[in-house]
Amino acid sequence: MYVCICRQVTDNQIRDLCRDGVSNLADITAKLGVASECGKCGKLANAIVKEFSKGANFIKAA
Fold first, then answer.
1. Dist CA 60 CA 56 (whole Å)
2. Which residue, 5, 26, 46, 51, shows the most beta carbons closer than 10 Å to its own?
3. Strands 9-10 and 2-4
4. Domain-by-domain residue ranges, the chain?
């Protein structure tokens, strides 16, 4: 699904960066340009990053 229409960024692209170690919206913005134009995608992009980090922490603890 597209998260950022302005930059044509999908949720899978954001998750791929999270798998590679990116853990905050600022780094996602720097790498993909998310939330750098109109900004409407920032909340969703940040939610994906937080969701991924919660899942990663759960996996590490197991």
1. 6
2. 46
3. antiparallel
4. 2-61
Host H or E run for residue 28: helix 25-32
Residue 23: how many CB atoms within 10 A of its CB? 14
What backbone torsions phi and psi does residue 25 show, to the nearest 5 degrees? Answer: -65, -35
Rg of the chain over all Cα atoms, to the nearest angstrom: 11
Q: What is the pLDDT of residues 28-51, one digit of tens each?
A: 999 999 999 999 999 999 999 999
3-state SS, one letter per residue, for 17-59: HHHCCCCCHHHHHHHHCCCCCCCCCHHHHHHHHHHHHHHHHHH
CATH architecture type of domain 2-61: Orthogonal Bundle (1.10)
- By the 8 A CB rule, do 34 and 28 touch? yes
Entry pTM: 0.84
